[in-house]
Amino acid sequence: MSPVNAEAVLAATVREAGDRIRAALAMRFRDLDMAEEAFGFASLRAMETWTRDGAPRDPAAWLYAVGRRRAFDLGRRAKVRAEAQHDVPEPTPDPETIAMAAFEPIPDERLRLIFVCCHPALAPEARIALTLRTLCGLSVERIARAWLTSEVAMQQRLTRAKGKIRDARIRFEIPEPDAWPERLDAVLATLEIAYGQAYEDAAGATEAADLAAETLRLSGLLANLLPDEPEVLGLAALIRLAESRRPARLDAAGAMVPLSEQDVGLWDNRLIGEAAGLMRRAAGIGRSGPYQLMAAIHAAHAARRETGFVAWGDIATLYDYLLSVRPSPVAQVNRAVALAEALGAEAGLDALAAIQGPARLAEWLPYQAARAGLCAKAGRAQEAADALRRALALDPAPAERLFLVRRLGELSA
Q1: Model's pTM, two decimal places?
Q2: Which architecture characterizes domain 1-104 according to CATH?
């Protein structure tokens, strides 16, 4: 096998199964740092071995088996094998069989590890960031961008969180149901951010693409496990409403299509119907919250299928409610866009200028894209072009880059 082919097989395997393998290693060895190091070692060894001998029959099982053996070696060197492994036996001569058998319960193990990473002993943001890094495989740079902070600061936060899990000997098992509420907010935020990272990429071309299907699945699982938690139902609804639009998010040239310009006939009616049912169940419980408000915003956009127009004034009001219960610069940017549609571009630009966000807000691509759109709407072509150039400098995904380049060309025409 050529190096190019080996690299392609490895990349596909890491994309499809990497987070599951890391989770399985972490569950087996009770050490997040060891799991990441073992998986990294296995990936490097795969490139060397597969280039020379060809890819194995089951690349995921191969990576797990090599990572498992590496973790055993690391445990011996640190003289903690007895503590980390207890009575777990050495690998047998048939590692692929063992590895694939170990994968069978992984969906439950992943949920267990999410709750472990969201342990109340950790600071809330650390819980979420650690889960995104360990289970979702997001880069530190991506996680830092989601928090509008620096990569160095986020790396330090992750290091402290992993050290606390190790030093406090936090058990790798799901807590009893009566202990779930104290972890639930962090679990929901993890799924929200993970889906948001996938949604930023309309074409599914980045390493976060697979998180869309996974968060869709996990949010549904949580809704079944906690049917009386309205915010769980709200999160499951908003993910389904957002994901229902995926078939309409690209044009024939592969460029991203903005929500307001999408063909509603391409939206997934099944997912919209599921979301409506979840929202009705949540409303019947009688406790509102930010996820239900965000779902209501998505539902207002979905109503265009029936009405033919977007009730932008209602959406701006919903953002006001959302900001009253969960302030965030992200919601403020989205509110500014809604105000521009409801009251005019200058109202939107005033709202955008009033945001007291972190210093890195200007380095957040959606902010620059929103600013470009509002400036163009207000007739400020030069400011719009400047904002588009700043957005393009922030390394957008391929479909989003095509969209931004096209808008820049329209301004220059």
Answers
A1: 0.81
A2: Orthogonal Bundle (1.10)
